[in-house]
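Hey all, quick one. A colleague (J.T.) asked me to put the zinc ion job into the tracker so the inputs and the structure tokens live in one place instead of scattered across chat threads. No bug as far as I know, just bookkeeping. Sequence used:
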Amino acid sequence: MTPTETEQRMAELRANLARHDELYYRQAEPEIADRDYDALKRELADLEEEYPLFAVATSPTQQVGDDRSEGFQSYTHRERMMSLDNTYSDDEMREFHARLVRELEREEFSLVVEPKIDGLAVSVTYERGKLVRAVTRGNGVEGDDITANARTIATLPTQLKASADAPVPDLIEIRGEIYLSTEEFQRINAEREEAGEALYANPRNLAAGTIKQLDPSVVAQRKLEIVLYGRGYTEPVEALPETQQQFFQWVKAWGLPTVERQWVAHNADEVLAAIRELDVLRESFAYATDGAVVKLDAIALQRTLGATSKAPRWAMAYKFEAERAETQLRNITIQVGRTGVLTPVAELEPVQLAGTTVSRATLHNRDEIARKDIRIGDFVSVEKAGEIIPAVIAVNLQKRAPTCEPFVFPEQCPACGTTAIQVEGEVAVRCPNRECPVQVRRRVQHFASRACLDIEGLGEAMVDQLVEQGWVKCLPDLYHLDRDNLLTLGKNVDKSTDKLLAAIEASKTAELWRFIHGLGITHVGTAAAKDLARVFGSLTALADATIEHYLRDKESVISGIGKTMADAIMGFFADDYNRQLVNDLIAAGVNPETPTTGAGGTLFAGQTFVLTGTLPTLTRNEAADMIEAAGGKVSGSVSKKTSYVVAGSEAGSKLAKAEKLGVTVIDEAELRRMLADDAAVQGTS
Ligand SMILES: NC(=O)c1ccc[n+]([C@@H]2O[C@H](COP(=O)([O-])OP(=O)(O)OC[C@H]3O[C@@H](n4cnc5c(N)ncnc54)[C@H](O)[C@@H]3O)[C@@H](O)[C@H]2O)c1
Ligand SMILES: [Zn+2]
């Protein structure tokens, strides 16, 4: 690769990973297998090491995946919640051990090996033994306060048991995972299937989706469970035992559900043996596991090694490869997506895989079928990584019948018959017809869905009817529906029709980010839509944005939005059809509510801020929001290009670096003054 290509590849990897993070952490609907996600991340990390010049501080390799979502209070963890470095290989686990030996400068130390629970991370705080709070990992610094929902978990005690062997500290944050048992997962999915609702791919996603329900009574109907294994902030700190092994005993003594078993190991061989044993036993555990976690046992040694920006140096996750099974491919069908992408789907002879029956699997795209030479009638191996949507991995050529013909990808869209196209540089084959009924249906469904305009009464079945009748051919048509027409859809539908029309009318003034998300621009999820709404303040301003609004000196101006996403957004609006769509929506009376935080400010345009230490009243996110709302950029590391470092108490190396480089250092009060002066000026103009 040339340097430019390398830089492009890295930007592309960052954008892709950001998108998968959004799908996984916030929407609990991952599109790719963990193994593939981990491979992308590894590729990026390797490139960053080789080309540090092209690395950016906001890279997904440097941050903890962010699960925070709408409708919850943020809560700052007293001690950060971290991720874990991971590996799939014995050799790398040996290397990890060798690194510990080097860094600790000794051969003798104990390690513990624990199951790696595939749930969602949570921190539970007990004050004087009483349960006071439960918070998700969030971005590691602050998470969503899910206390009300966590209180519905029957196995989570509201009071810790104290004993002479395990005294209860004044205050402790205990880390663990919330999960759903396989049976409960199947029960809920079966219910959803009957109700015609979308199914969850695995227990982790369903647990993640459940804990983020805004109504605790819904949560209470699902039997969430919890397992606790780790320690966060503790007061007084001497109150805790000196090893991870003992801590495990204490957690049990306090009456908390914890991992079934812990292994102790003294060298790499013992670690690997314990992992093998765990791999056999894990099927009998109450929760799904996706690996083992290997940790230094002595807390003092853990402290010596410390942590990187996202993971402790004293622990390593060993992930198990996903389960595979062989079965016969009966047929390949083609699905039409929202943007016209034709996705081939494998229709399989049903097979048992990781505890469920699998009869369909994704084949990704035309090239993938050709590359693997997958043919109808073949015997294929199917994998279910992390229990996500199964994928066809390979063909067993030995079993191929001589009559098996190569698969010919259809040249026409199966929904509308239009000749499919492949845009240069893209893997996807698309139906280019904007009025393709399946595409329209999916676009409108997306627009009306809860994650977008959230229009009540406009569920998938209703959208199907509107499109079928030909009343809705594009999004703006929704705002011109005819009441008399709607009344023909059934008997006694006066009331529901009026309700639907009122909900559609009300959606005209929904928040701007909902419309941005609702347009269905590739790569733009809710998080990005919110950032865009804050920065641009209107649909037309977003449609008119040029590359300068996104990138300056090749650095992204809006945090979280890089070149790939910027290209996707500009590409979307470069298309006259989409421009017209925005104009038509506005002409139909759409008038989105804009964010209140001084959207589109220019005070700090072109300036980069670095936040460090604890600010007196603002959380880091609040400060970052204020800076970004005024057009500034927040970066994670100090360089000569940094305009200001905003320092609070306990500011560390960043402050020192700023002083060394002569970067201006300000405090929260000064930041507020700058913003207030600007507001005053704007107010008088
Ligand atoms: N498929 C996708 O699109 C997608 C997207 C994002 C992330 N992911 C998956 O998630 C992983 C990254 O997520 P992550 O940052 O949550 O890391 P992780 O799940 O690989 O490991 C870190 C987490 O493990 C949990 N954990 C479970 N048992 C533990 C134990 N006994 N001790 C300590 N911690 C334990 C903790 O919550 C900790 O935060 C990736 O490696 C990837 O596999 C997948
Ligand atoms: Zn079509």
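Adding what we noticed when we looked at it: The chain has a mean pLDDT of 88. The chain has six domains: 3-62, 74-319, 323-399, 437-509, 512-587, 608-684.
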